[in-house]
C-alpha cells in the first residue's frame, strides 16, 4: 500500500511541475536550445536574450527545462539561464510598444481637436459679427438715452417758461381789464 501512495504522490508532484510557467531567457547572453534535457543533446536553435518562453516541464536531475517559444517551437534549455521576471529586453520592447500606442492615441486626439477647431472657425466669425453688432446697438442706445435726457430737460424748461408766460399774460390781461373798464361795476349783490 505504501508503494501505491508513493507513486500517487510522485505523479501529483510531477503534474504540478507540468503546469505552464512563463519564463524569459536571461538578457545577458544568447542561448542555444537543445533537443533533450542536457548539453549532451544536439543544438536545436538560438534563443535571443529576453525571449519569452513557456515552461512545459523541468528535469530536476539535469537542471534543464523543456520550453516552448512564441513561435510554438519546443526545445530544452538550462534552467539557470531562465528568469521568471521580464528581462530588460522584454521591458524595453513593452515600453516601446506602449510609447507607439501613446503616440498613435495622441495623434488621434490632435486630429480630433484640429477638426473641432476647423468646425468652430465659422462660429468664431459669427460671434465676432454679433459682438460688433451688439457694440453698435449699445452705442445707439446710449445716444438715444442722452437725446431723451436732453429733450426731457428742454421740455421741462419750455413748459415752465410757457406756464410763466401764461401766468404773466393773465395777470397783464386782468390788469388791463381793470384799467380799461374804468369804473366800478355793479355787482348783483348790492
From TrEMBL:
DNA-binding among keywords:
no
Task: Give coiled-coil spans as residue ranges.
Answer: 92-147
Q: Which Gene3D superfamilies match?
A: SH3 Domains
- Segment forming the signal sequence: 1-19
Is the keyword rRNA processing in the record? no
- What highest taxon heads this organism's lineage? Bacteria
Q: Transmembrane segments in this chain: where?
A: 159-177
Cellular component terms (Gene Ontology) = membrane
Ranges for domain SH3b: 20-86
Keyword field:
Coiled coil, Membrane, Signal, Transmembrane, Transmembrane helix
Q: Which InterPro entries match?
A: SH3-like_bac-type, SH3_dom_pro
Instruction: Tell where it localizes.
Output: Membrane
Q: How does it sit in the membrane?
A: Single-pass membrane protein
> Record's SMART domains?
SH3b
This chain's protein is named TIGR04211 family SH3 domain-containing protein
Q: Which organism is it from?
A: Aliikangiella coralliicola
Amino acid at each position: 500500500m505504501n508503494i501505491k501512495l508513493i507513486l500517487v504522490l510522485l505523479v501529483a508532484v510531477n503534474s504540478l511541475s507540468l503546469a505552464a510557467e512563463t519564463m524569459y531567457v536571461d538578457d545577458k547572453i544568447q542561448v542555444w536550445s537543445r533537443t533533450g534535457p542536457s548539453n549532451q543533446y544536439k543544438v536545436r536553435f538560438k534563443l535571443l536574450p529576453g525571449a519569452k518562453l513557456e515552461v512545459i516541464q523541468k528535469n530536476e536531475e539535469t537542471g534543464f527545462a523543456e520550453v516552448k517559444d512564441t513561435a510554438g517551437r519546443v526545445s530544452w534549455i538550462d534552467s539557470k539561464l531562465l528568469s521568471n521576471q521580464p528581462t530588460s529586453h522584454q521591458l524595453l520592447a513593452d515600453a516601446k510598444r506602449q510609447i507607439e500606442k501613446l503616440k498613435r492615441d495622441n495623434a488621434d486626439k490632435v486630429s480630433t481637436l484640429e477638426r473641432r477647431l476647423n468646425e468652430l472657425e465659422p462660429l468664431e466669425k459669427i460671434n465676432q459679427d454679433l459682438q460688433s453688432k451688439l457694440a453698435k446697438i449699445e452705442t445707439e442706445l446710449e445716444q438715444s438715452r442722452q437725446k431723451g435726457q436732453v429733450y426731457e430737460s428742454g421740455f421741462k424748461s419750455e413748459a415752465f417758461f410757457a406756464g410763466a408766460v401764461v401766468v404773466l399774460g393773465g395777470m397783464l390781461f386782468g390788469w388791463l381789464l381793470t384799467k380799461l373798464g374804468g369804473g366800478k361795476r355793479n355787482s348783483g349783490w348790492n
